[in-house]
Amino acid sequence: MASFTYTNVGIAGLAAAVPKQIYRNLTDNKNFTIEDAGAIVEKTGILERRVADDATCASDLCFAASEQLMNEMGIDRAEIDALIFVSQTPDFRMPATGIILQHRLNLPKSCLAFDINLGCSGFVVGLNLAYSLLQQDSVRKVLLLNGETRTKVYSFKDRQTGFLFGDAGTACLVDKNEKYGQSWFVLDSDGAKSDYISIKSGGYRYPSNPESFIERERENGRIYSDEQGYMDGAGVFEFVITEVPKSIKRTLQFAGVEKEQVGYFVFHQANKFMNEHLNRKLKLDADKVPFSLQKFGNTSSVSIPITIVSELNEKLSGVNKILISGFGVGLSLGTAILTIDNPWLGKISEI
Amino acid sequence: METKFLEQFTELLEMEQPVKLNDIFREYENWDSLAYLSVISFVDEEYGIVIPREEFGKMKTVKDIIDYIAANS
């Protein structure tokens, strides 16, 4: 079982950045009538989301969040020994965007930098990796960046995906301190469902070609090209309501922590319908489960950290434990219980 | 269970007429992917059963859903 326990490692601070441009789902998607849009918005709970312009990449959002975090927290950049960039919308196919960010952020050349290709589980998996790197005496601070420009990936003409996704970037500083106590992670993969959420073309299995850019009408009137994201919403829903509650129970059991000891449960912001189903199934108190999807939509791996920054600012003093759970593309699933000590949270910046 | 299920199903799909056992639910005017999710979610919450997609694909009538729940409870 991929389960991990760490002592005296934790989140020192978190910052987030979003594009200025707001996309309102009810009125801005001209491919659908306001009645159709209304039915989808009612189910997903996503009223609006942020859309990056052509010149803005996920890395730019992470750059802005990182600058805010390091400047306002007064961090000595020389102490950042690793940078992890989690994204499925990188700047280039190569080199890794994380290495470009090492230079842009003026981090030392002695800093390890790399990318992780994961989506909705990516904050939990990335954080686990940051914690594990910090087991080394010589690693002092790790910067975990989660960035996505998902609106550039999905067709706005596809009723299953055209209303869900938003763009955002976060920066999370992880370091060592005795005040943090213990944290636990449980991580799973299910590659049998790799086609549930995917982009067919653009890699080396199905290289891009003139055909792959053509928008086609698919089953149920969905319209997208092979260069755009496909999601089997029903399959993902079945996976999530079956596997996520089990993952959370296993993690609580592994950690020896009671549900009542957890201050907040921060879930990947998939859609309101699915998340509320999870809350009811797990019998969670609504006050303990923050939502940010109404404002930012589903931002893939960014959704957990942006929910903490957006919804838990000034609510974490006195909170000792939070549970985070990310699930989606892969399919990949990760749950963690983090012992926290009032992390620094920035005000969301707009670029 | 049948009567209760039919009432709940009628409400869930916001049907104007009460649904009947032998209705072919995919022929309802307001049957769509969102209705499907509502049914899966409802059966999970009410009966603790997640109906796998391949099983649901074989079901035609409301009675098929009830029979599946009865066989798997």
TrEMBL record, chain A:
Gene Ontology molecular function, alphabetical: 3-oxoacyl-[acyl-carrier-protein] synthase activity; beta-ketoacyl-acyl-carrier-protein synthase III activity
EC number: 2.3.1.180
Enzyme class, broadest EC rank: transferase
GO BP term, pick one: fatty acid biosynthetic process
Residue ranges of every copy of the Beta-ketoacyl-[acyl-carrier-protein] synthase III N-terminal domain listed in the record: 114-190
Domain Beta-ketoacyl-[acyl-carrier-protein] synthase III C-terminal: 252-339
Pfam families the record matches: ACP_syn_III, ACP_syn_III_C
UniProt entry keywords in alphabetical sequence: Acyltransferase, Transferase
InterPro entries assigned to the protein according to its UniProt record, in alphabetical order: ACP_syn_III_C, ACP_syn_III_N, Thiolase-like
Protein name according to UniProt: 3-oxoacyl-[acyl-carrier-protein] synthase 3
Organism: bioreactor metagenome
Lineage: unclassified sequences, metagenomes, ecological metagenomes
TrEMBL record, chain B:
Domain Carrier: 1-73
InterPro entries in the cross-refs: ACP-like_sf, PP-bd_ACP
Protein name as catalogued: Acyl carrier protein
